[in-house]
Design goal:
With 508 residues, this protein is an alpha/beta fold. It has helices at 6-9, 14-22, 28-46, 54-69, 112-119, 162-169, 186-192, 226-236, 254-261, 288-303, 319-334, 355-366, 369-382, 388-408, 434-438, 445-450, 478-507; strands spanning 49-52, 81-85, 123-128, 175-180, 195-198, 218-223, 270-274, 307-311, 414-418, 454-462, 465-472.
């Protein structure tokens, strides 16, 4: 038995846990039990999970330990526990997408992401809370509970993957899967001090993800370190014939890119600071502390040999209105399947009502306020006489945003910006102001609309709360995101180490 304490386990990176498991220093049962104990102790306050099955998790951990004892060849993730956002369909496990309309549904199959993680030997701790159908930036739109930010439990953990972000930040999981439609991995990662990566659209299968906006949704990792994110991304990525939008291309070598980046040499790398995302003349709505930390991160990249320049992408100013026409339009189509007939909630079926009445009652009680708002908005934008003026125009803006990115890649290798204009705000502060809530995604929307990879990495604190730094790269250049993020992570770790030594020297 290992002499590593439970506290050590729940503060150790997933990569290090994997190494300890392979070396026989820890068992998967030990690691899993440590996390389950912490969930039992802390999650009543944090509210990260919607479903935890301790017995199933320990059985899975025992199976990994038994296989390892027999000398079976296991992958680098085998035996490491994991949390899944409740939008990922998981066989036999309640999957609700944060909505009452799917309360109690136990799917008969696995999403491709879930299946690949099972094949890799990860141990499922549970399903995490989320904004209903991934519609939100604060995880206050869940039909079940509010999730709290571990840095300050009176504040939001971001959204829609707020349950996943809170679980990892609070030490209730070593890593987690989130999904990102307009920023729902990156923004919660930013406000809880995590690494969160939105993969290139089509590079991670959407099969079995409960759809919000089919041309935007992507699953990705939420972790404590860049290397952890790269390892988890490699496990879920790759072509899937079950997803018609899946790219038939090999998964980039991501973990190696992260390890290379940690060496701190960015010589020759061209970094573009996006003017429209918090740059000169575009600072309205951005907190000064956020901009200061981002500027410091840019200076660190420059200190490692990167060439930094300003890049203007004018169409980015139109990303917010374009997104809030495209995504609700696709949602109005995707959510039509929730009718109370085949699965999930069914209201009013007492024999006195016809099918249309049952469907109407089911949707009235099953969908929350924000979901109804977006369905109505999307249905209107797609309606006869308005399609070209709204949805069609939004798609033209999407093309302009993609062209801005294409033009930028002629001059730079990556683009950078804040991940979120602000740090985490108090719970309840924006629930009655949807425009303020939507503005949380100002910086993340362009990459989503263009389908390119983008990563958020912590870059310090403002008023004691985490700030995120976003790195964007061309399509299928996810490895470039990981390289730059790992370099920044290493530089910040070194700077903190020097500051500590200076402080110790000053007290000596």
């Amino acid at each position: 038995m290992s002499d590593v304490t439970a506290t050590d386990i729940t503060t150790t990176s997933a990569a290090a846990l994997g190494e300890a498991l392979r070396a026989g220093e820890l068992s998967s049962v030990e690691v899993t039990r440590a996390y389950l104990d912490r969930i039992q102790a802390e999650d009543a306050t944090i509210g990260a999970y919607l479903h935890v099955d301790a017995e199933a998790a320990l059985r899975a951990a025992e199976q990994v330990d038994a296989a390892r004892a027999k000398g079976e060849e296991l992958g680098p993730l085998a035996g490491v526990p994991l949390a899944l956002k409740d939008v990922v369909v998981t066989e036999g496990v309640p999957t609700t997408s944060g909505s009452k309309i799917l309360e109690g549904w136990r799917p008969p199959y696995d999403a491709t992401v879930a299946a690949r993680l099972k094949a890799a030997g990860t141990v499922l701790l549970g399903k995490t809370n989320m904004d209903e159908f991934a519609m939100g930036s604060s995880t206050e739109n869940s039909a079940y509970r509010v999730t709290r930010n571990p840095w300050d439990t009176d504040r939001i953990p971001g959204g829609s993957s707020g349950g996943s972000s809170a679980a990892v930040a609070a030490g209730l999981a070593p890593w987690a899967i989130g999904t990102d439609t307009g920023g729902s991995i990156r923004q919660p990662a930013a406000v809880t001090g995590l690494v969160g990566h939105k993969p290139t659209y089509g590079s991670v299968s959407r099969s079995g993800l409960i759809a919000f906006s089919s041309s935007l949704d992507q699953a990705g990792p939420m972790t404590r370190t860049v290397l952890d994110a790269a390892l988890l991304h490699e496990a879920i990525g790759g072509h899937d014939p079950l997803d018609s939008t899946s790219i038939d291309a090999p998964v980039p070598v991501l973990a190696e890119a992260a390890r290379r980046g940690a060496g701190g040499d960015l010589s020759g790398l061209r970094v573009g600071v996006v003017t429209e995302l918090g740059g000169d003349g575009h600072t309205d709505g951005y907190e000064p502390g956020v901009l200061a930390r981002v500027a410091e991160a840019v200076a660190l990249l420059e200190g490692m040999g990167a060439e930094v320049r300003q890049v203007s992408c004018p169409a980015f100013d139109l990303a917010l209105p374009a997104y809030y026409l495209i995504a609700p339009s696709e949602a109005s189509s995707n959510l039509a399947r929730f009718d109370g007939v085949r699965y999930g909630l069914r209201v009013g079926d007492d024999g006195s009502r016809d099918l249309d009445e049952v469907m109407a009652l089911t949707r009235e009680q099953g969908f929350g306020h924000e979901v109804k708002r977006r369905i109505i908005l999307g249905t209107y934008a797609l309606s006869s006489g308005y399609y070209d003026a709204y949805y069609g125009q939004a798609q033209k803006v999407r093309t302009l945003i993609t062209r801005d990115f294409t033009s930028a890649w002629d001059d730079v290798d990556v683009l950078v910006s804040p991940t979120s204009p602000t740090v985490a705000w108090p719970i309840g502060a924006r629930v009655d102001d949807p425009i303020a809530m939507y503005a949380a995604d100002l910086c993340t929307l362009p990459a989503s609309l263009a389908g390119i990879p983008a990563i958020s990495v912590p870059c310090g604190l403002s008023e004691g709360l985490p700030v995120g730094f976003q790195i964007m790269a061309p399509a299928l250049a996810d490895d470039r995101c990981y390289r730059v993020a790992a370099a920044l992570e290493a530089a910040q770790d070194a700077a903190r180490g020097h500051a500590l030594l200076d402080a110790i020297g000053g007290r000596a």
